[in-house]
Amino acid sequence: MNWVILVLAGLFEIGWAIGLKYTEGFTRLWPTVGTVLAMVVSLGLLGIAMKSLPVGTAYAIWVGVGAIGTAILGVVLLGEPVNAGRVLSLALILGGIIGLKLATPA
């Protein structure tokens, strides 16, 4: 169950990372409120997952899920460029996430 919680924490990290763009430097009220709420939920879920998962593994997976998701949404929502180097780099992060999951006892 803690792995599911960890992935959910990563999904909320994506939400606040993308939300930061829409806050326009925390000058827009509702995007700022949503972003701060996503931050709180993300960190709260990460803390719960860390009760039974190793800190290094949990943190690395949380950041990796957030990085991959944020990069994908940056392309989809914000028109950021796609090139072979970016795709390969994201694939390497995904490989690291999978490797950490396989190397960590349940």
Automatic annotation (TrEMBL):
The chain crosses the membrane at residues 29-50, 57-78, 84-103. One of its GO terms (cellular component) is plasma membrane. One of its GO terms (biological process) is xenobiotic detoxification by transmembrane export across the plasma membrane. The keyword Ribonucleoprotein does not apply. It comes from the Bacteria. It is a multi-pass membrane protein. Keywords: Cell membrane, Membrane, Transmembrane, Transmembrane helix, Transport. The keyword Heme does not apply. It is found in: Cell membrane. GO terms for molecular function: transmembrane transporter activity. Belongs to the drug/metabolite transporter (DMT) superfamily. Small multidrug resistance (SMR) (TC 2.A.7.1) family. Gdx/SugE subfamily. NCBIfam families: PRK11431.1 (NF008512). This is Guanidinium exporter. The gene is sugE.
